[in-house]
User: What shape does this take?
Amino acid sequence: MAVFGQAGDMTLVLSGIHGNEPTSAGLALQLIRHLRDNPQVYQGRRVGVVTAVNPDGLIRGTRENALEVFDRTFSITVALQLLATLVAFIGILSTLMS
Assistant: This one.
């Protein structure tokens, strides 16, 4: 996950959710390059970009991951709960370090 900015509200961009729909992962990589080249875009806020929420699904070209935890309704799964915990942890660390 790439994180830009150190303070303010956090916007989280998730991509690569369904491995058989890889366009979002490429777009997320372009977004990361754009944010690196244009820090004024996220001034006063934070942006987190996850390029592949479902990396093994992207590799296999399948909608689900190897554990079949991503479904059509995008229900909260163990993987997404872990991701949310990671984002919260990064926010806490960012606050403590500033």
Notes: The radius of gyration is 14 Å.
